[in-house]
Amino acid sequence: MSSIKKQDVGQGAAGPRVPVEKIRARLQEAIDIGRLPPGQRLPEERVASAMSISRARVREALSQLAQLGLVELQANRGAFVARPSVEEARHSWEARMVAERALARLAAERASDDDRAEMRRLLTSEQAAWDEGDIPTAVGLSRDFHRTIAASAGNPVLAEILSNLLSRSALSQAVYVARGQAGCLCDDHLELMTALEAKDPDRAEAMMAAHIDNMISRMDLAPLPQDVDIEDALRFDI
Fold this sequence. Notes:
Layout: H1 20-32, H2 44-51, H3 55-67, E1 71-74, E2 78-81, H4 86-110, H5 113-131, H6 135-152, H7 156-176, H8 186-197, H9 201-217, H10 230-233
Antiparallel strand pairs: 1-2
């Protein structure tokens, strides 16, 4: 990250200070694309060294991420990438369903020709990445496709809410979807893109709802048993 200066290392570092928002965004990006998986410990000193910044700045960024529900701060243990419970995952996806249906409808009504061209470019690149087996790039492009739809809807409050929900859903997918199955569904994106290009808000909303349902269906969100019969659980051959 070339914009982060070596002078910012250490509590009393001189020189330009990197905005905490920029540090937070870099960490959030790594969480979004799975480079920092759920449960990963985030030692302040290692994050500071990796980004050439002070531990104080790292601490501020981690605090912001904790407020967003993306990091857990544990007393005497430090910071960890959040590992959502089944209930937390359900809540995130319910919220995402509500937000993205509204954003898809607004985007169909308000998106400009340039907005739609950018969506189509992202979709084409996403498909190419999936075809090449480049999963991190494909997942990143998929997320950018959803963010571009949100930006084109003309409601920055909803777009900001979605940005956090995309990160939360990425964590729940990492925990509750089988390895290699956590990305978006490109065929769904193609059908959604057709509705957006046709400027059909009803169809766009319906396709977004179907898309979110499809992603939810790929996760195992069945509650874990709370009252297990120990004898029965241990009754098997080794």
